[in-house]
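Predict the structure of Chaperone protein DnaJ.
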Amino acid sequence: MRTRNAVARDYYGILGVSREASDDEIKRAYRKLARQFHPDVNPDPEAQEKFKDINAAYEVLSDDRKRQIVDLGGDPLAPGGGGAGPGGPGGAGPFVGFQDIMDAFFGGAAGGARGPRPRTRPGADAILRLELDLNETAFGVEAPITVDTAVLCTTCSGAGTAAGTHLATCEACGGRGEVQSVQRTFLGQVVSARPCTVCQGYGTTIPHPCPTCAGDGRVRTRRSLTVKIPAGVEDGMRIRLAQQGEVGPGGGTAGDLYVEIHERPHDVYSRKGDDLHCRVTVPMTAAALGTRLTIKTLDSEETVDVKPGTQPGSTLRLRARGVPHLRGTGRGDLYVHLDVRTPTKLDAEQERMLREFAKTRGEEVAELTKQGGFFSRMRDAFNGHA
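Done. Here is the predicted structure for Chaperone protein DnaJ.
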């Protein structure tokens, strides 16, 4: 049996066809030679070797990727590549070794060559910060916004070419979007591929770019939109506006626009989820005797009773006077936290009346300014004096 060497074989010469032969011409030449040198027809050992070469040549030239390697000066069936063709050394088993390298460079595992990258690609998402008052986040609002994004070029409708012109196939890569080279290493032949530097991997060029977008298919502009804010949104939430983001290169589908809500602090109310909280100061006498307060909520006025004897830090709850629930029905609650205010200054008459009131309740109130007053008695109590 003849040993195959590392020199690239002339597969075109084996089949007797030219390098420009079509697939049909290669197939006809193969069938003609196969009938002539088939072992069942021609038992000559030399004919059997010839038949193996014919099969190998047809395997290579009928496969576009392998034929491309031959056109670049390589041999996809060389020993360093990992095996012979059908009927050769190793039998008629699958093509291994070199095929793995081909898959790595051409994406064979994905079912085909990588090919040129498309000019039209999806656009990116965009995000916009929107500040709203508590009333707007609570009850919803239609807010005008200004967006600065890339939009479709109306001059070329995204094509990127000037009027009356078209894309041209890249002459450097023949429209493949990449250029390939074959290198012989100690591991065998290695095919490397890199994006075409002339067309940047697109496989086409723009001889006459659109004067408006310079061939990008999109332009940046500022536009006004209205976003509908639903009732009950919270600080930090995002509202998605489909396909209102960046238009992609080549007029690709626009991404989404996300409006991020930022709620301004309120002068009176603080918010925790859908509940509202506020603080109201009441005089000491009102807390002791009881009173009625008028509370202005976000959308109404409510009257609440402060019961006699209310203590500092007490809380009143107004049901369903908070923020509407974003999902579902109903509202949160409003919590009124009471701060009881003690007078800081009393005139002589007010002090006398307050002392009289303390006596009626059996509460001893010491004179702070007299010797042996309250603090003195407290000191004596700690020191163990009677």
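The radius of gyration is 44 Å.
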